[in-house]
Specification:
56% of the residues lie in helices and 8% in strands. The protein is mainly alpha-helical.
Length: 180
Amino acid sequence: MDLTSYAELAVLLVNSEDALDSLEGARRFLTEAGRGRQASRLTRADLEALRELRRELAGVFAAAARHDENGAVDRLNTLLVRHSVRPQISRHDGQRWHLHLTEGGRLSDEYAAGAVMGLTTLVTDLGVDRLGVCQAAPCRRAYLDTSSNRSRRYCSERCATRANVAAYRARRRHLSGHGA
């Protein structure tokens, strides 16, 4: 099992914006995150726990964006202690036997274990610099840099295009101001 694929759960949660404003919104979020089978188990306690986890994970991404490697790792270590991982072998949806993290217990604990373990695996395998925060103003969405040359700076093509167009227009304004 590629545990780094679980890191995407952290990105989705950090970027969930208003999705956690209500139980219904959180259920939609979980379904969109591929956790629809679990969404029916969502409780108010889970919702609060997911909101807190979102704040904590955002802190990991913020530290990484500041190039504070020790800060990001310290935050991850704290989360690893708080959200213990219980692996289980599972088979569903016609798949072969594979590893899952925390089947059973509260839904928020399962989500946390997957997200935290995924980020931890990504950081230990590839480095803290693979966690990023979009550099396109005013966007502050988190992303995982899976590029071969560690060059990603934006959360999406849309933000990259918007930032490049803004930079181009700023250069043109600067040049036209000097040529007049």
